[in-house]
Design goal:
alpha/beta; Rossmann fold; Arc Repressor Mutant, subunit A; 5 domains; 7-stranded parallel beta sheet; 6-stranded parallel beta sheet; globular; DNA-binding; hydrolase activity; HRDC_dom_sf; DNA binding
Length: 726
């Protein structure tokens, strides 16, 4: 059938392109001839066209099974743009009402619809199966086919039911398409879809225009990201984070720093999510911050950078997400922040899942760690993972190739590794092999009596980092292989056996060092000191002057840690002042003006370059707890009842309330004090704070005497602060 059709003419007629890319034409001919077809093509290679054009040529309606509602809408809109008839493409999923579904059915029955996109969940519903039985199906396309495999990065159990449903609806050729699949995943897909004999078209996974870099995750990731974006002004970028909370936090921080960014994750209401996606596509915003878990299906050709705030759970996920950069063949920077701590977190998330699933997840994490830590060409590592050999010594477009490390001879080390793998009968994973080399008598080693082996302890002179590097690079060089079916046990290849008989030079580069970084100390609290002592002392003088003029103690205006931060960060506007710990909007308005004027003058006179341009503006803490406490106090709920309802200790509640009033929010707790406190006691404590130069509770108790409690002092201090300072 395909020979009679001039496909290039049809391509020009429907899509306006003059020629096909890569394997596209061969794939279409195979499908038009009625054969099952398996397509492995990287993101940006033109997978969609492989089924879109045949659907327009063939008789009947093509069913496209796709997991992403957002992507369905995009593709249907795109198809309608190529045609005069809106009914040419439709989708059915949970977002449609009954009237819309009736319209879809009517267009299909009248023969208008050539492409029907269906979510796998919808396909399993009896009403759709019954309806589709009465329709002439041209072929079935299974997009994102890696979702079938538990070894794929986005396993969906409902994908396992696709074949039985196809059998129920009616026989037609199947085309399965994916942008990421290791040999193991490819086999899984073909087996599960009953298309083991399908013709396989595999394009190279190499994307030469993408630059890959892995950076150590320091305490200042936000700052690094802001600096990177500001150096890439007006370019489109995607940032992936692991959690929805981080997505929202980071989007707010970027906005506060003058970056046009919005959030995107599955927990948002669909209208907002769609709006944010459209704003990104229409270039109303430059940056979208999204969860890794949410495959965005964004078909934007000119995304210039993809940043991973957290390392993804698998290299397939990483490849798929970085693949959204530079789809037009132009620049695409892929920056990933990595610390081993993130992998430990991801492992914790897996607890509670079935053991087999945990084991698979752990394997995938180990591959990701190996990629991040290795100092081998990133391209070589990635392509090896997908079963493709990259022969260039230096790709010239990744951090490891642009900053190559010195190579060291590891011939003897590789011989030791091969001997050990053979000694344990090729039944164990890399970490166990390293335990044997290092002579560690772990319970597992003892259970197998392997402490008696001749190779036990033969590698004790080196550290684990070297052994990991030897194993990783021997896998890439083809001396070792990994048995994926058996959770990554190491095998020696024929080349490896030859190497052991006749050793030759084997040079490796040592792995990158990703030092653990201590978490940043909280901004508030003792022990911090100002970077500019001269300014700090001037600010203290100004505070003293104001305290006399306004007749309030100095600490009521700004506390010491706030002044120290001002003498470090140099805020010169009220907006900037609100980034200082302990300074809310109210406080900034009430007292801030004179402080900003003083700081600005000091900077000008001393030609100080302020760090504000590169300083990350933090977002005011809009914690739900604080908001609900303020609302409860406004409704005059007793404070002990608030603590009870929030499930926190009374003293912890007072901590929260103090933080609220210290940042400049006025709270009236008189209703509670009137009920629980003796009026004379209250006045004595209030007068003490009026006269005192410190707001310490212990100082107050020492001065006031035994009949006063710590809670009373703290409660009156809250009242005093709120009235005098806010």
């Amino acid at each position: 059938m395909a020979e009679k059709i001039n496909l290039t003419e049809q391509l020009k007629r429907y899509f306006g392109f003059d020629k096909f890319k890569g394997n596209q034409e061969a794939i279409m001919i195979n499908l038009l001839d009625g054969n099952d077809t398996f397509v492995l093509m990287p993101t940006g290679g033109g997978k969609s066209l492989c089924y879109q054009l045949p659907s327009l040529i063939m008789e009947g309606t093509a069913i496209v099974i796709s997991p992403l509602i957002a992507l369905m809408k995009n593709q249907v809109d795109a198809m309608r743009n190529f045609s005069e008839e809106d009914g040419i493409a439709h989708f059915i999923n949970s977002s449609l009402n009954k009237a819309a579904i009736d319209q879809v059915k009517s267009d299909i029955l009248s023969g208008k619809t050539k492409l029907l996109y269906v979510a796998p969940e919808s396909l399993t519903k009896d009403e759709y199966v019954d309806f589709l039985r009465s329709v002439k199906i041209s072929f079935y396309a299974v997009d994102e086919a890696h979702c079938i495999s538990e070894w794929g990065h986005d396993f969906r159990p409902e994908y396992r039911r696709i074949r039985p449903i196809i059998n129920e609806i009616g026989k037609a050729p199947v085309i399965a398409l994916t942008a990421t699949a290791t040999p193991k995943v490819q086999h899984d897909i073909q087996k599960n879809l009953g298309m083991v004999n399908a013709k396989v078209y595999k394009s190279s996974f190499n994307r030469p225009n993408l630059y890959y870099e892995v950076r150590s995750k320091t305490v200042n990731v936000d700052k690094e990201i802001i600096k990177f974006i500001k150096n890439n002004q007006e370019k489109s970028g995607i940032i992936y984070c692991l959690s929805r909370k981080k997505v929202e936090e980071l989007a707010e921080i970027l906005q506060a720093n003058g970056i046009n960014a919005k959030a995107y994750h599955a927990g948002m209401d669909s209208a907002t999510r769609t709006q944010n996606q459209d704003d990104f596509l229409m270039e109303k915003i430059d940056v979208i911050v999204a969860t890794i878990a949410f495959g965005m299906g964004i078909d934007k050709p000119d995304v210039r950078y993809v940043i991973h705030y957290d390392i993804p759970k698998s290299l397939e996920g990483y490849y798929q997400e970085t693949g959204r950069a530079g789809r037009d063949g132009g620049e695409g920077q892929c920056i990933t922040f990595y610390t081993n701590k993130d992998l430990q977190k991801l492992e914790k998330f897996m607890q509670g899942k079935p053991v087999a699933e945990q084991e698979i997840g752990r394997q995938l994490l180990l591959e990701t760690a190996a990629y991040a830590e290795s100092s081998v060409c990133r391209r070589k590592s990635l392509l090896h993972y997908f079963g493709e050999e990259y022969t260039e010594e230096n790709c010239g477009n990744c951090d490891n190739c642009l900053n190559p490390k010195k190579q060291v001879e590891a011939q003897d080390s590789l011989c030791a590794v091969i001997e050990t793998i053979i000694a344990v009968k090729e039944n164990f994973k890399a970490d166990y092999i390293i335990d044997i080399l290092q002579g560690r008598e772990t319970s597992e080693v003892q259970a197998h009596l392997h402490e008696d082996l001749e190779v036990f302890g033969s590698g004790m002179g080196e550290d684990d980092k070297l052994w990991n590097a030897v194993i990783r690079q021997a896998l890439i060089a083809g001396y070792l292989s990994k048995d994926v079916e058996n959770y990554g046990t190491l095998k020696v290849t024929d080349e490896g056996h030859k190497f052991l008989k006749h050793p030759k030079s084997f040079k490796i580069t040592e792995d990158n060092d990703f030092e653990e970084v201590e978490d940043e100390a909280p901004a508030r609290g003792g022990g911090s000191c100002a970077v500019d002592p001269a300014l700090y002392s001037m600010l203290k003088d100004l505070r003293k002057k104001l305290s006399k003029k306004l007749n309030v103690p100095p600490y009521v205006i700004f506390q010491d840690p706030s002044l120290e931060a001002m003498a470090t960060i140099y805020p010169v506007t009220l907006d900037e002042l609100q980034n200082i710990p302990g300074v809310g909007a109210g406080k900034a308005k009430r007292y801030g003006e004179e402080f900003c004027v003083l700081i600005k003058k000091h900077c000008e006179e001393n030609e100080i370059e302020r760090p504000e341009d590169l300083r990350v503006r933090t977002v005011a803490n809009k914690s739900k707890l604080k908001v609900s406490i303020i609302q409860a106090i406004d409704r005059k709920v007793a404070l002990d009842d608030i603590a009870l309802s929030k499930g926190i200790e009374f003293s912890d509640l007072l901590d929260e309330v103090e933080a609220i009033v210290y940042s400049g929010t006025k709270l009236n707790i008189d209703y509670f004090l009137d009920e629980i406190m003796d009026e004379d006691h209250l006045l004595d404590i209030y007068d003490y704070f009026k006269e005192s130069t410190t707001d310490g509770v212990e100082d107050a108790l020492a001065e006031l005497g035994d009949e006063f409690t710590e809670e009373e002092v703290r409660l009156v201090r809250i009242k005093f602060f709120s009235e005098m300072a806010n």
